[in-house]
Design a protein that fits this description.
The structure holds 2 protein chains of 2 kinds.
Chain A: H1 2-5, H2 12-37, E1 40-42, E2 48-52, H3 55-59, H4 63-95, H5 99-114, H6 117-128, H7 133-141, H8 154-179, H9 182-190, H10 195-224, H11 227-233, H12 240-249, H13 254-287
Chain B: H1 7-30, H2 46-53, H3 55-86, H4 94-106, H5 109-122, H6 129-153, H7 157-165, H8 170-199, H9 202-207, H10 215-225, H11 229-265
Helix pairs in contact in B: 1-11, 2-11, 3-6, 3-8, 4-6, 6-8, 7-8, 8-11
Classes of the chains: A mainly alpha, B mainly alpha.
Chain lengths: ~290, ~270
Amino acid sequence: MKKKKAAGNGAFKWFVMPIYLFTLFFVIGPLIYMVILSFLEREETWGVTNTFTFGNYLSIFDPIYLKTFAESLRLALISTVLVAFFGYVFGYFMAKLKPRMRKMMMMLLMIPFWTNSLIRLYGWIIIFRANGTLDSVLMAIGLIKEPLKLLYTYPAVVVGMIYALIPFMILSVYSSVEKMDWHLVEAARDLGATPAKAFWTVTFRLTLPGLLTGIILTFVPSMGLFFIADILGGNKVVLVGNLIQEQLMKVHNWPFAAALSVVLMLIMTVMIWAYRKIAKADELEARL
Amino acid sequence: MKNRTKWPSVYLAVLMALMYLPILLVIIYSFNESKITSVWGGFSLRWYTELFRDRTMFEALLNSLFVGVVSCFLAALIGTFGAVGMSKVSFRSKGVIEYASQLPMMIPEIVLGMVFLTYFSLLRLPFGMITLIIAHTAFCIPYVYMEVKARLVGLDPSYVEAAKDLGASEIRAFFDIIFPLMLPAVASGVLLAFAMSFDDVIISVFVTGVDVNTLPIKVYSQVKTGVTPKINALCTLMFAITVIVIVIFNIIRRKNDVKTLENKDL
């Protein structure tokens, strides 16, 4: 291998040609255009003019749009906390199963994971509708007298978010619990720690990276998901994603949609960057 | 670590059941004779026959398959050659391009859809099949690329060295040794990519033209207007296709793993 390096890239430069060209033209190009577009002025009805402006970014500070960002962050936060709790417990218990059961659970998890999220969300419409499955069951047991009519409400959107995102959390927690050295927990127990204490000081600390990865994998996409709010929330829950879609398809204010996208991506980049920092700090600590 | 209580299993079972409940309901109601979803009117295949009679649905299915197959084929070519080539060349721009090529998998779909919509109209590309294929290829490449790259890392370099010692050129060694060993990785990458392409709604909604619908777009527009039994049938069929793809994917993966283990033993 080392001798060949001097011979240069040889024929392999032709191998990378397609990916170079495609990435330049259809990934980097569009992204650069998005940034440029976000600084352009919108034309009266359709299209853009070539005037430079900060206006698109300034209009994000309009209270209505700020509220949308705040609303998105709140929903993402609520969903992430709930997903983290239910997903962590699930991943933890799953990693403690016998190997054969674990494999089966993996397979069972894969199917919803790869199933169209539309199909899965569509099932929730059947459940949440007025006089749908949930209402019928609850009324049959006598828990409620009137239908709850949960469809197109905030709780329905939260359930939809949890449902769409929990597989990511389960898988990342599971992989970190599975890798864990259980002898450390046993050692803690032998030294007199209660099960709860051993869990908090050993297990939880060691599986924190998995939990953090899961939180990033949940939080980041939850900012951009617009069709869950669209399908289960009706028009009542408006998120940044919905706003971008509306500006793009209905209002045709493309520069503003571009500015919103840039801000959304910046928020996510900061989140991922912070995560990397924490993960690295954690690694260092673990090594010490 | 023995579980003395049954609670963990109960918890796992309940959550798993909740995960499948919506899908199960869709499947059950797709066989419901009654038009009103909340009333059970007996078993029937009525909605399936109505679905198959619907020309626009059939067209949407063909479009979805066409877009999926073509973009997966392109992604397989670009991704496989890209991953192999990137491991050999030493351009300075390599890192940037590699990172950028993976971006479509990480960028939120809504942003990616917006980016493509505006860029394609800047280029004045006709919205429809071409734009759909370009966009789908963009987010399919990372799946193939990642799988192939992972397999390349696990590849024993002595194979290629042996071939070269026997007088094979670098390219010859690639086609005779690396390429056949890469095939399972390419296959599993392509299957993942196909599942993604076949399911994509958001990006497709943005980049498609007026008269080209894919199946998920069709489902999306109908789900928004309300629940119809025909959509239940359609969702059930799409679910079945996904399950089949996953099963094939797992079989390939398993064979792949066995092979890797054998290689290690050698």
